[in-house]
Amino acid sequence: MIRFCVFGAFLLYLVASPVSAGFYPNGSAIPPDLRRNITDNAWNAFLNFTGCHAGMKVDGLYKIKQYFQHFGYIPLTLPGNFTDDFDDILKSAVEMYQRNFKLNITGELDELTLQHVVIPRCGVPDVVNGTSTMLSGGGRRRTYEVSFSGRSQRFHAVKRYSFFPGEPRWPERRRNLTYAFDPRNALTEEVKSVFSRAFVRWAEVIPLTFRRVESFSTSDISIGFYTGEHGDREPFDGFMGTLAHAFSPPNGHFHLDGAENWIVSGEGGDGFLTERAAVDLESVAVHEIGHLLGLGHSSVQDSIMFPTITTGRRKVDLHSDDVEGVQYLYGSNPNFNGSRTPTPATEQRDTGSGNSGAAGRIDGYSSVLTSLLMSTVGLLMYIL
Ligand SMILES: [Zn+2]
Ligand SMILES: [Zn+2]
């Protein structure tokens, strides 16, 4: 049985300190002086460990142990003052990581493994208290095989969706959820509409609705862009690295890294794809909403709930793995006919008001946690 941290509700008192977050219709709209190279990603330094294996001692190796601990591959119970030795702890962490990402299980920091490690990703851990949420074990229905009957073919699929420990979900009486944006981010309507499109993708398959409201303090789901430490002891790490994180039900907190260059147009043309140092906002939003609903990470690479996202790539359509997982928690939307036709983002775009297509930067905020109160049984805070 997985044991996990249960926190009470967090009372966050946010102290504003302006930072900036960039939103752009496409990669080429990023001003030249703000364009970043993908190699600016702090994790890229891990590539220097290529070829490291058990028994070696390499300067700075402790940093990759911290990385693996952050994502659950090294238990949080171990103190974080790691040595630079490639010890058994690191070896088993590497092996578990390779298993989750379907890499050759070598136990070494080989080239392919490290190329995966440096890909920007969701901040939610893949492993909780030593049990992977991405593969079988630790919970029922984590992994099974199912056959689908297609129109003209029959194929076999392996289900890899997962849930948070205890399978938390929004209760029956809360099927019409509200969401609001941190008013201090002063987001444009265009940016907000990206999130509404992302919510629709989930609402199409389950009997839940999502309605935008103005009250940030009372909404079920609260969305904000922050940098660095921002009140939940899960500081963002600047450009690339961790892109966002969200908490399991019924917490509702959804945080995004204000240091990224976010693409909001919902289009993924060639020009965008070549701008690899920018991230498609809707792709990340769809993923994090999956966490808000109770889904953990999946080892199916094409699923929305796969932990990493290749910069420059747009991935917004729910995979059958995502649909099966979320319908296990909530049942099916009566109007869902079992298949989704990928819809061009422009057809769902909120045309409400202003700033369409404009590149721009907004004021964001960093914040600090000043109190931790209000213990509430059953509220699971999930640190990604
Ligand atoms: Zn995630
Ligand atoms: Zn956070």
UniProtKB/TrEMBL annotation:
<feature type="region of interest" description="Disordered">
    <location>
        <begin position="331"/>
        <end position="358"/>
    </location>
</feature>
<keyword id="KW-0482">Metalloprotease</keyword>
<keyword id="KW-0645">Protease</keyword>
<feature type="binding site">
    <location>
        <position position="232"/>
    </location>
    <ligand>
        <name>Zn(2+) 1</name>
    </ligand>
</feature>
<feature type="binding site">
    <location>
        <position position="230"/>
    </location>
    <ligand>
        <name>Zn(2+) 1</name>
    </ligand>
</feature>
<feature type="binding site">
    <location>
        <position position="220"/>
    </location>
    <ligand>
        <name>Ca(2+) 2</name>
    </ligand>
</feature>
<dbReference type="GO" id="GO:0030198">
    <property type="term" value="P:extracellular matrix organization"/>
</dbReference>
<keyword id="KW-0325">Glycoprotein</keyword>
<dbReference type="InterPro" id="IPR006026">
    <property type="entry name" value="Peptidase_Metallo"/>
</dbReference>
<feature type="binding site">
    <location>
        <position position="260"/>
    </location>
    <ligand>
        <name>Ca(2+) 1</name>
    </ligand>
</feature>
<keyword id="KW-0336">GPI-anchor</keyword>
<dbReference type="InterPro" id="IPR036365">
    <property type="entry name" value="PGBD-like_sf"/>
</dbReference>
<dbReference type="GO" id="GO:0008270">
    <property type="term" value="F:zinc ion binding"/>
</dbReference>
<feature type="binding site">
    <location>
        <position position="238"/>
    </location>
    <ligand>
        <name>Ca(2+) 3</name>
    </ligand>
</feature>
<dbReference type="InterPro" id="IPR021158">
    <property type="entry name" value="Pept_M10A_Zn_BS"/>
</dbReference>
<feature type="active site">
    <location>
        <position position="288"/>
    </location>
</feature>
<dbReference type="InterPro" id="IPR021190">
    <property type="entry name" value="Pept_M10A"/>
</dbReference>
<dbReference type="GO" id="GO:0004222">
    <property type="term" value="F:metalloendopeptidase activity"/>
</dbReference>
<feature type="binding site">
    <location>
        <position position="255"/>
    </location>
    <ligand>
        <name>Zn(2+) 1</name>
    </ligand>
</feature>
<feature type="binding site">
    <location>
        <position position="257"/>
    </location>
    <ligand>
        <name>Ca(2+) 3</name>
    </ligand>
</feature>
<feature type="compositionally biased region" description="Polar residues">
    <location>
        <begin position="331"/>
        <end position="346"/>
    </location>
</feature>
<keyword id="KW-0862">Zinc</keyword>
<protein>
    <recommendedName>
        <fullName>Peptidase metallopeptidase domain-containing protein</fullName>
    </recommendedName>
</protein>
<dbReference type="InterPro" id="IPR033739">
    <property type="entry name" value="M10A_MMP"/>
</dbReference>
<keyword id="KW-0865">Zymogen</keyword>
<keyword id="KW-0472">Membrane</keyword>
<dbReference type="GO" id="GO:0030574">
    <property type="term" value="P:collagen catabolic process"/>
</dbReference>
<dbReference type="Pfam" id="PF00413">
    <property type="entry name" value="Peptidase_M10"/>
</dbReference>
<feature type="binding site">
    <location>
        <position position="237"/>
    </location>
    <ligand>
        <name>Ca(2+) 3</name>
    </ligand>
</feature>
<feature type="binding site">
    <location>
        <position position="305"/>
    </location>
    <ligand>
        <name>Zn(2+) 2</name>
    </ligand>
</feature>
<dbReference type="GO" id="GO:0006508">
    <property type="term" value="P:proteolysis"/>
</dbReference>
<keyword id="KW-0479">Metal-binding</keyword>
<dbReference type="InterPro" id="IPR002477">
    <property type="entry name" value="Peptidoglycan-bd-like"/>
</dbReference>
<dbReference type="Pfam" id="PF01471">
    <property type="entry name" value="PG_binding_1"/>
</dbReference>
<dbReference type="InterPro" id="IPR024079">
    <property type="entry name" value="MetalloPept_cat_dom_sf"/>
</dbReference>
<feature type="binding site">
    <location>
        <position position="287"/>
    </location>
    <ligand>
        <name>Zn(2+) 2</name>
    </ligand>
</feature>
<feature type="binding site">
    <location>
        <position position="245"/>
    </location>
    <ligand>
        <name>Zn(2+) 1</name>
    </ligand>
</feature>
<keyword id="KW-0106">Calcium</keyword>
<keyword id="KW-0449">Lipoprotein</keyword>
<dbReference type="InterPro" id="IPR001818">
    <property type="entry name" value="Pept_M10_metallopeptidase"/>
</dbReference>
<dbReference type="GO" id="GO:0005886">
    <property type="term" value="C:plasma membrane"/>
</dbReference>
<feature type="binding site" description="in inhibited form">
    <location>
        <position position="122"/>
    </location>
    <ligand>
        <name>Zn(2+) 2</name>
    </ligand>
</feature>
